[in-house]
Amino acid sequence: MTARAEGAASGPEAPVPALVLEGVTKRYGSARGVEAADLSIRAGELVTLIGPSGCGKSTTLRLVAGLERPDAGTLSVAGSVVADARSFVNPERRRVGLVFQDHALFPHLTVARNVEFGLDRLSRGERRSRVGELLDLVQLAHLAERYPHELSGGEQQRVALARALAPRPAVVLLDEPFSSLDESLRAQVRRDTVATLRDTGTTGVLVTHDQTEALSVGTRVVVMNNGVIEQADAPEVVFERPASRFVASFMGDADFLPAHVHRALLTCEIGIVSTVPGWADSDVDVDVVLRPHEVALRPAPDAPARVSSVEYHGAFVLHHVRLASGRTLRSWQPHDVRYPVGTAVAVTVAAGTSPTLLVGDRAVTSPPADSLKLGSSAPREAGFPDDTVPTEVPR
Ligand code: ADP
Ligand code: MG
Question: Which of 6, 101, 181, 297 is 20 to 30 A from 364 in CA distance terms?
Fold first, then answer.
């Protein structure tokens, strides 16, 4: 096995990542499992992995755990290669812990015996004390002699976590661990699990299909689609700076309007949206991403837009608005605001919004190279004379 973290980019002092995927690919016949996944997870991170059903989340975890062999690429755990074209380390030797949705406890073993299961390399005394530590950690010491069927779903989940943590794995993988728990239990078990992982400094990868869970639990959120990692960033970045059309619409509500950037001014059907610093020489069509909290409404009898439906969500009221073009936008209004269906409304963008821009399906932060049509040598197009370009968005 080769130690990593010796590359030019990482000095000798750089900490070794807990988990690295480089070009990891797994296909099932002609079907995509995971395609050329690159990901590096620092020790102590708790990463959430989210995407639609069938996008490759479980396959990714199974590859890391050693339950599948990659067709290509390299997988390293705590600085050791565990799978590449030449080598394959068996699951029990990978220092990877697993927690599944259905807990998968051994039904014929007590809680203590379940937790002890992966500790066969320790002496009897060491095993006993490690099991004691783990049961204290998950607050189940009083249930040590029970069998799994004598436990609640939440307790079974804690046993599964204790069992996964007992051998001191470098990474714990959790595959939708809360989805078999009922709603009332889920929040508590999630809090307990996350607290245990944080308190023990455990590196974790948690698969979820719940956007709120992905954003609130993860130090980083990895978004997958059709076998491909579309984005791996801090929760705020994934939500506020989605890398693609898919991420924008999958993580939270998003509407898309055709828009145009001309001399750093972003306009679309609802008017001026914002200025786009750095796009002074651009004249380019884009799509603008607008989220319901960014869209402001004001009743205006002469406006062409109409409220088309209203949904009460408790804390806020979601208004669907049909624009003159027939496209719709959604707008969150405070819980006590409700414009009746049919109300004519002026639609604007909330102050301070600097929305994501898409060219094709990719987000762009700088003008595409072929959009620089307004440079000094380029022919002038009709538009704002230079001295009338606003530098602030009119509010
Ligand atoms: P997720 O966990 O994101 O819902 P999976 O990783 O389980 O998705 O599956 C990704 C894709 O690989 C799906 O299209 C699925 O049908 C396919 N797949 C997964 N496991 C197998 C398998 N053992 N044989 C064939 N296809 C599989
Ligand atoms: Mg799955």
Answer: 297
Q: Whose CA is nearest to atom 22 of ligand 1?
A: 28
- Backbone angles phi and psi of 146, in degrees to 5: -75, 165
Do 274 and 360 sit in the same domain of this protein?
Answer: yes
Q: Are residue 245 and residue 278 in the same domain, yes or no?
A: no
By mean pLDDT, which of 57-61, 101-105, 308-312 is the weakest? 101-105
Is the CB of 31 within 6 Å of ligand 1?
yes
Same domain, 238 and 286: no
How remote is the CA of residue 55 from the centroid of ligand 1, in Å?
7
pLDDT digits (tens, 9 = 90+) for 178-230: 888 888 888 888 999 999 999 999 999 999 989 999 999 999 999 999 999 99
Same domain, 176 and 191: yes
CA of 150 relative to ligand 1 center, distance in Å? 33
Please write the tens of the pLDDT for every residue from 341-358. 999 999 999 988 999 999
Does residue 287 belong to any structural domain of this protein? yes
Half-sphere exposure of 375 (CA within 13 A, CB side): 7
| Ligand 1 pocket test, candidate residues 55, 61, 230, most atoms within 8 A of CB | 55
Of 250, 277, 299, which closes a domain? 250
Q: Are residues 268 and 187 in the same domain?
A: no
β-strands 31-41, 316-322 pairing: unpaired
Residue 186 lies in a domain: yes
CA distance to 64, 74, 81, 278, per residue, from 87 (Å): 14, 9, 8, 48
Which neighbouring-strand residues pair with 234?
none
**Ligand 1 center to 54 CA (angstroms):** 6
pTM (predicted TM-score): 0.88
pLDDT value at residue 374? 59
For all residues of the chain together, what is the average pLDDT?
A: 90
Does ligand 1 come within 6 angstroms of the Cβ of 53? yes
